[in-house]
Amino acid sequence: MANKEFDVVVIGAGPGGYIAAIRAAQLGFSVACVEKWINPAKKMVLGGTCLNVGCIPSKALLASSEEFEKVGHHLADHGITTSDVKIDIAKMLERKQKIVDKMTGGIEYLFKKNKITWLKGEGTFVAKSDGGYQIDVKPVQEADKPETVTAKNVIIATGSKARHLPGMPVDNKLISDNEGALSFDTVPKKLGVIGAGVIGLELGSVWRRLGSEVTVLEAMPEFLAAADAGVAKEAIKQFGKQGLNINVGVKVGEVKAGKNNVTVNYTDKDGKEQVLDVDRLIVSVGRVPNTDNLGLGNIGLATDERGFIPVDDHCRTKLPNVYAIGDVVRGPMLAHKAEDEGVLVAEVIAGQKPHIDYNCIPWVIYTSPEIAWVGKTEQQLKAEGREFKPGQFPFAANGRALGMGSSDGFVKVLADAKTDEILGVHVIGLNASDLIAEAVVAMEFKAASEDIGRICHPHPSLSEVMREAALDVEKRALNK
Ligand code: FAD
Ligand code: NAI
User: Fold this and answer.
1) Which family does it belong to (predicted)?
2) How far apart are CA 243 and CA 215, in angstroms?
3) Which of 84, 162, 273, 372 has its CA 20 to 30 A from that of 362?
4) How far apart are CA 334 and CA 24, in angstroms?
């Protein structure tokens, strides 16, 4: 029997792959998507890292833990008295899983609606063929049968997995990566975190709010080196006040897992030997691209030295009609970047001329206060020798932030010294994740800081801080 043929086969149904499949189907192509993920209930699911063990479950736990902290510590200021506040961890995890199930089920619905065939199993390139590329789909459940399909176009969207370190065997009980750390069944009394990156800070915050004594060990001498230095300085101050114990410039040595504890030997920034004894340890030291068993060699593709699939600005590999997107290629490992690349590739296949400005991809860290930025940091602009003017405005001078009881942080706008074009916007404060969207729009339209300063913003709202920071570029903030 001849292989089934599709115009487009996507390998991987994370935010990159499932969005690529939907956009390709919207453009009239016959589309299949290969996906192998099995959830803890032994059900095959779509959505990849983001929906199953990434963005969505982590934000659910951040929200639950934030409510817990609010009730326990911040309602008294409003004159609200509470007593005997408890958290039921099993219920919190059940809520998280319900959200995940709803979202992954939603993608199944979207696949049906857009007539996308879900090929259940692991996809491997077998060979180039006249009609395109042959891909084997190896079942991961007994009920499914192996099959080989032919694709005129292939989009590799196989994502990434947690990087593990030698000498730190992850069992997702005592020593966990993101998967285990999203499902602790009890609140560890003492929690260690290796790596003060995005996962370390977000999940460290979750368990600290729920009662853990959290110690973070970071190898780099500088905290949050990718963020604007002013924001990073404010962040470490705020996290320290909350009780997150962050140690930078450390060298982690031997890690020993006992029966119920983990001992971490490390050298601190002053060269002193230290020992950290914890109930659980999270290892969050970055992620590596997924290309195992993909059969790239069978079609003449290779990864670069770091394991990424090399692509150009339009996510084209060196082979005709083979594209790669999301965490498996260069650029930030972010769900919205993967999604935008998915749309871009589907449109390239359709002969359109899409474009992504990678400088306009926002970053958000969902701590409290939230941290978000787009464009260049002050230190990057200085290194490039570009002349700029900064404008900054604090949430402490904003009535809405005060009313909401969360007035830490600021917005900072960096604009070109001559043209006033906005070059970067940095927010640390309440709802930074939403506030940054205005800056992204402004930068995509090459707006000047004066443009944001002249636009009417609702009062009272947190967005007024963005406007005041823009006005402050010319030192004409109205409430400063
Ligand atoms: P993935 O989501 O990793 O999906 C790849 C899919 O491919 C998987 O489902 C995998 O099973 C499948 N696959 C791999 N190989 C094969 C094969 N051979 N055959 C069939 N299927 C295969 N990003 C944000 O923007 N915001 C956040 O708030 C955020 N929070 C995060 C929190 C955590 C704890 C983690 C771990 C990540 C977070 N991220 C966040 C990052 C985000 O999850 C990733 O950038 C995003 O999931 C990448 O999408 P992707 O489609 O490239 O890959
Ligand atoms: P990360 O790259 O953000 O941070 C890893 C940290 O570990 C770095 O600060 C690094 O210096 C440190 N490190 C590396 N090796 C170390 C060692 N041996 N000892 C001590 N420290 C060490 O990686 P993380 O936190 O694992 O997250 C992976 C990716 O997932 C992120 O880069 C991001 O792309 C994505 N993500 C995005 C989120 C968001 O958008 N809100 C949330 C969570 C993850």
Assistant:
1) Belongs to the class-I pyridine nucleotide-disulfide oxidoreductase family.
2) 9
3) 162
4) 21
- Smallest CA-to-CA distance from 429 within 365, 371, 362 is with 371
Per the listing, tokens 């099993």 go with 90
Ligand 1 atom with the shortest distance to the CA of 332: 45
pLDDT digits (tens, 9 = 90+) for 393-449: 999 999 999 999 999 999 999 999 999 999 999 999 999 999 999 999 999 999 999
Tell whether 72 is covered by a domain. Answer: no
What CATH number corresponds to the domain at position 267? 3.50.50.60
413/443 Cα distance (integer angstroms) = 11
User: pLDDT per residue over 147-206, tens digit each?
Assistant: 999 999 999 999 999 999 999 999 999 999 999 999 999 999 999 999 999 999 999 999
Whether a cis peptide bond, with omega within 30° of 0, leads into 369 is yes
* Residue labelled with tokens 């699939």: 309
Domain end point (choices 247, 267, 285) = 285
Residue ranges around ligand 1 (CB below 6 Å): 11-17, 34-37, 48-50, 54-55, 58, 122-123, 157-160, 178, 199, 290, 293-294, 326-327, 333-336, 338, 366
Domain count across the chain: 3
Q: Judge if 207 and 234 occupy the same domain.
A: yes
- Tokens linked to 112: 């049906």
Say yes or no: 145 and 242 in one domain.
no
- Annotated binding residue 335: yes
Integer Cα distance of 104 and 479 in angstroms: 46
Q: What is residue 119's three-state secondary structure?
A: strand
What distance lies between CA 342 and its chain's CA centroid?
16
